[in-house]
Records
---
Amino acid sequence: MALYVKKFGGTSVGSTERIQRIAQKLKDAHDAGEKIVVVPSAMSGETNRLVALAREMMPGVVDLRELDVLLSTGEQVTIALLTMALKALGLDARSYTGTQVKVLTDHSHSKARIQHIDTDKIFKDLDEGRIVVVAGFQGVNSDGDITTLGRGGSDTSAVALAAALKADECQIFTDVDGVYTTDPRVESRARRLERITFEEMLEMASLGSKVLQIRAVEFAGKYNVPLRVLSTFEPGEGTLITYDDGESSMEQALVSGIAFSRDEAQIKVNGVMDKPGTAYAILGPISDLNIEVDMIVQNQAEDETTDFTFTVHRDDYEKVMDFLENRKNELGAKSISGNNRVAKISIVGVGMRSHAGIASQMFKALAEANVNLGLISTSEIKVSVVVDENYLELGVRALHEAFELESTPV
Ligand code: ASP
Ligand code: MG
């Protein structure tokens, strides 16, 4: 019998009525012979509500041990309610908190990492025909203290459980019906992907496609857990995320999706010395400020100086500009310039590995759409360009069309 770990997000368990609908859905799957472990999130809005309560008690820095005790209650509510709903349908089911299972984590309250999951009780229940309901987002450390995994962490709970139980699939039920070739709000002809690889999903996810927590995708890739994203209440197969087995139809698709992010800013340090240590002198202190730098370009120097350009999240723009202005003399830079009205568009696909000329196909499509390109960067499975933010939608649609993403794959 196939074993599935099924995770339900906050909106899916947002009311008692919805919890009852999920219970019915689980009953159907159980009747069809599936072995099931369910991982619900807290009801939508609940974790935020609890965080706000904590802030009232401790303005400024909240005690993280106590915050975890508080936040873990959100999922404790939904596991109990869902189990009750299953029992009301005549099924045998049992709920467990992270501590009860136990989901052993390290000691980092509010961003704990899972170290081990005891599977004995879960397997015993499954063997006895029960549906097992495990609280997402929480664990327990070796001192017996409750920990939580960071916001959105129940995706990771589900994947970790699926890995520990060697489940056939980890199914993430959510309010979208899968992963799309691009954001359907920008391109209405965006198509749901039947399959995508872990690597592609990571690129899509880190570029703003927020269907899955990035950590959960990394975890699934590391432990080779097949992951499926699908809609809670709409029928459908969703999107399966797996390794590229070289046999599926996605091999033929050069580009699997177009990812983008709106909130980019670009900063240019002009006329710094072309000598060892320059990049470190500029970027070292920025990374010490905990600011993430994304694309980095240094052009070939014609004299003894060079220009150094990079992108950061728009929220960090002012901070980095101020910082560099203040250190301009120290760095020996002629000037610092920047633009915080830029966006990034990327084409993503494992098919690029074995095909030359994808980048030029991309540039051609953008040229025909009259989109001007700023920085360009490439990796094995991705080409990214920085564009004026006003050209983002136009660029995404042009690329979606050029790479024929709206059509059904052969
Ligand atoms: N309830 C937690 C949160 O809102 C965990 C989750 O939903 O995945 O972050
Ligand atoms: Mg969530």
---
Amino acid sequence: MPMQPRDTPPEEPAAAPAAGTAGPVGAPRTADATYDVLVVGGGVIGLVTAWQAARRGLATAVADPAPDGGAAQVAAGMLAAVTELHYGEEALLALNLAAAERYPAFAAELAEASGRDIGYRRCGALSVALDADDRAQLRELHGFQQRLGLSAEWLGGSECRRLEPMLAPGVRGGLRVDGDHQTDPRLLTVALLAACERAGVAFHRSLAARLRVTGSGTAERAVGAELADGTRIAAGQTVLAAGSRSGRLAGVPEAVRPPVRPVKGQVVRLRMPGAGTPFLSRTVRAVVRGSSVYLVPRESGELVIGATSEELGWDTTVTAGGVYELLRDAHELLPGLTELPLVETGAGLRPGSPDNAPLLGPTALPGLHLATGHYRNGVLLTPVTGDALAAVLTGGELPDVARPFAATRFAGARQHHEGRHA
Ligand code: GLY
């Protein structure tokens, strides 16, 4: 049964939140529904936040017109902390590794809470090189991984093909990473929705139109949101978890507005042959002519090929060029894939942040938290995001591993930037 909103008569002050949460100072005079926690956005990050909050006894609601939408519907679901390592992202690596370590227990907890499997598969990954330049780049990445103490094994071309016989004969070498796995983001979403419903999370299927803020100066406080359908929600704490749209909610004061932008990714889905005809057993990735491509084989037979990375604003058009480039590069790695049925193409928007890492926890505006900016790692970071937000929503601190990703970390830079342009 969904948790009923706290019963607040019209024209009355909002009800006090549950024990252990901060009360809305100067709450709005009217509310159609009142909760301890309102989560704006029902993608995997919003859902895991809502689920974890509700599990801890907080009356929780999610506002989203389509809570099973979001970037995860397009994502391939690689849990690739090591193979997706980028220079300059060492701090993020620690969070990604913590998330990868948390995944098995998270998958089990979620399966128990929802009765659903999330397709968590300990398949490992292989990054391969097709020419001498790719090989040199991959060797350099391997050196970087080794300096950071990460586990990755260098293989020659024939060893790569022994592992994955469908790889092109031209593969010159590769990095085997047995600790990078996968989950199915669509199954993850379904499971999170079911877990939320079982935990009593209420769903308001409408877009959040405006953050409700009361008071002024140091007494200013977020106290919920108004939805596009006219519903006024009062909440002791509001979590902005709307992915790439998180910076667009009206009413959010400029000083705490999350600096996220949409980064488009196009993805293609093929169907592999049935059991008995192994096509690909683990995630394979490569950089082909400077663009990275990855192939994620699921137990269901789905083969996800991704992803483009395009800074084109809010555009989600699937283009002939995007699909062509993905298939062209994937074909160089696995020539046999042109025989496979093409079952779907899609495009989604990653929530990019200035340092490619998420923004988590309280903002400088009391009552407003962020859980956004996960960029390339939303599916991987789902468990640790849920844990981090649950900690702060129940009055605690961000866990140590999440502390470098505090939602407030860009506030100084923004003020400096605004000052320079004043
Ligand atoms: N992590 C894969 C991507 O963002 O495309």
---
Amino acid sequence: MSYKDVYARWKADPEAFWMEQAEAIDWVKKPSKALWDENAPIYEWFKDGLVNACWNAVDRHVAAGRGPQYAIIYDSPITGRTHKITYSELRNRVATLAGALKAKGIEKGDRVIIYMPMVPEALEAMLACARLGAIHSVVFGGFAAHELAVRIDDAKPKAILAASCGIEPGRVVHYKPLLDAAIEQATHKPDFCVILQREQEVAKMIEGRDFGWHSFQYGAQPADCVPVEGDHPAYILYTSGTTGQPKGVVRPTAGHLVALNWTMKNIFNVDPGEVFWAASDVGWVVGHSYITYGPLVHGNTTVVFEGKPVGTPDAGTFWRVIQDHKVASFFTAPTAFRAIKREDPKGELASQYDLSSLRALFLAGERADSDTILWAQKTLKVPVIDHWWQTESGWPMVANPLGIEELPVKLGSPTVPMPGYDVQILDEGGQPMKPGELGAIAVKLPLPPGTLPTLWNAEARFRKAYLEHFPGYYETGDAGYIDEDGYLYVMARTDDVINVAGHRLSTGAMEEVLAGHQDVAECAVIGVTDALKGQLPLGFLCLNKGTNRPEDEIVRECIGLVREKIGPVAAFKLGCVVNRLPKTRSGKILRATMVKIADSQPFKIPATIDDPEILDEIRLALQGLGYAR
Ligand code: COA
Ligand code: AMP
């Protein structure tokens, strides 16, 4: 069947389409129907089914005779370790960890925060929660104590599972002190913590609250899988919005299993038993969907890679991993390829490895620029597939479905909508636009299974952020256009979210931190174009009257403050002091105009600007930082 046929079949009868895909999942009780629309525009899928995510990701493969197959290959160039875990071993490890958590009182519906680096125990922690019906929330290791504290207060976890440390090139990230500080700052306190002591740094434990990973599990009775309703949250994953308060995206269990399983073959084109590798982090949605649940639910072997595309030890690391583990399908962010290309422009390292197992490269998380795609095509000699999605969707909204049909690649486009997604371009008034016209990218409701039904404890915010602007549609926050052939082009965000090295960050959150500096009266953070990371945050600071401390000292302190409060992942290193910010007469800061000046793009001076002369000062300040040339 062609892509067109599959998409048309979905469109003709979405419920039948998804009920059919649901057959590939093991149910304790099959759902009586697919879609529940009583609460429209809030929709739910497979609500009256009973299912367990861990059973589907682990136990069922053992039951089907796949026990000896590797489930996880841990490859850590940063520590020099590799470790392979079969499905049988994974089942035993997860059942024991779940048993220990259960013995300490963790039950269905309880929240558990996971703050861990890229080690197999992070996946085991997620699966152990899923086994009990507990709702996990993984927090990315590059976030600082304050961000962790915000998530603790929102999710109110009964337990936190963490590692003593993470390892970044040239430094050890002290997770445990960050965790202790976060618990100190948070109003909500977890009952207990389980800490994986790593040999690179053994953490100090707090008597009575902290337990060692292994001693905690000693003698634990393995736990069985607890059936949960189809709409039971599998996890909460916080992502950046417009403000400093992150959005807790809720992932419903059944829809997520059905949809992810469908994507593994139809988009990523792998069969059970093959090795699938997503070089991302469990702290991001890619890590949830395509390091943990997608490949495991589908019976693939997943690679847990603890390293960087360059420097661990060199720009050939990715090729070595593909060769050593016979990776069939590989997923990463364009930034990673830009980093490799910068070190090895001719791709010579790739020719030193046997990459014959690799059938395709998938890129997502940020805009894939043509140079990177062309370089990857030339270097790897396999299809290079851009695909577009977000934390909220949980799986690709627009892609080139290699397992159905390889559609012609158009540079700059992630290709076409996947079944489940009726993607449209809308004007400000919510009217569909013509091919080629730029507008807001929206998806006609209902969204398909596996997408967010709401935000954790914040339904009003969910409605306001995603549903109200364009009634009947989900607002993605991205802008772009669709061409005559139905190919989507994603051009920019419509909000203040920026994308730094494939990481989604809120400029609003950074502004909140900067505004907290004693000498800062007002500030604005914009995303400027960067050749490696796509975008970088840049802050403008207006100081309080009478401040006479050296400006560069204040800028340095502000940079330190963002690192301390949000974390190193914010990559906030560019700041300058200006007298005033350009604003409209009604007081709105003209961030988009500042971005255009920074990127040396042509722009029109907005008619509503209060004082156009401020733009000259902005340009000079930007030039001082190497921009607006
Ligand atoms: N724990 C703690 N700190 C982390 C971290 C983690 N898990 N991940 C990143 N950081 C730190 C980095 O060490 C760096 O700190 P520094 O300012 O002291 O150098 C900072 O956060 C910024 O990280 P990053 O933006 O990732 O830059 P980098 O210079 O370390 O690496 C790349 C650049 C291109 C190699 C890297 O960004 C990369 O591999 N990107 C791929 C993106 C990706 O996988 N995205 C996921 C979505 S698909
Ligand atoms: P995240 O929720 O962290 O996955 O970030 C999602 C956002 O990243 C999207 O809303 C887009 O702005 C951007 N993004 C992800 N994939 C792509 C892509 N293939 N092309 C362009 N932008 C992308």
